[in-house]
Amino acid sequence: MFQRISELRETISFQEPKARRASSSGYIASDYTTWLEDVRAKIEVTGATEQTVGGGIQHVITGTITIRYRSDRNPTSTHKVIWGDKVLNINGVRDPNGRIRQLELDFTQAV
Question: Are 61 and 91 spatial neighbours (Cβ–Cβ below 8 Å)?
Answer without folding.
Answer: no
